[in-house]
Specification:
Elements (H helix, E strand, L loop, with lengths): L14 H15 L9 E4 L2 E4 H7 L9 H8 L17 H19 L2 H16 L1
Antiparallel strand pairs: 1-2
Helix pairs in contact: 1-2, 1-4, 2-4
């Protein structure tokens, strides 16, 4: 399913992937009591938000300040980077959000189910 998303080009994400990251972040914000992971759609495909965050793990683009705030307000400790907050990369934001999704899934008791389904999707994409 990861290959359903636009690829990075030399560490830079196309605008469509950056927009999908924003949608995934909003979906996370609205994730209340449902047990299952929120989804977003891209080109008619349903994609779990963790896949979007995973796709941005190596992105070196700088995150817009409104996204920085949305990410850092979810942290339990103050964010400490090498530079000011306005220099957070999508890679950092994606890694933070991936951990937060994983923690939520573990709290809901659904992490194993998601892991199995993501491995199945990866196996099918290789075939």
């Amino acid at each position: 399913m990861m290959n359903a998303l636009p690829p990075l080009h030399n560490g830079h994400a196309p605008f469509t992937l950056q927009q999908l990251f924003r949608e995934a972040l909003y979906a996370f914000e609205e994730w209340d009591s449902e047990l299952t992971e929120p989804i977003v759609t891209h080109e008619g495909r349903v994609i779990p938000i963790s896949f979007v965050f995973e796709a941005m793990r190596e992105c070196t683009d700088i995150v817009p300040m409104n996204i920085v705030g949305a990410v850092t307000e979810r942290l339990t400790k103050p964010w400490e980077g090498e530079g000011p907050l306005d220099q957070m990369t999508f890679s950092t934001a994606a890694r933070v959000m991936r951990v937060l999704v994983r923690k939520r899934l573990l709290a809901n008791g659904t992490a194993d189910l998601v892991a199995v389904s993501s491995h199945l999707a990866e196996d099918q994409s290789r075939d």
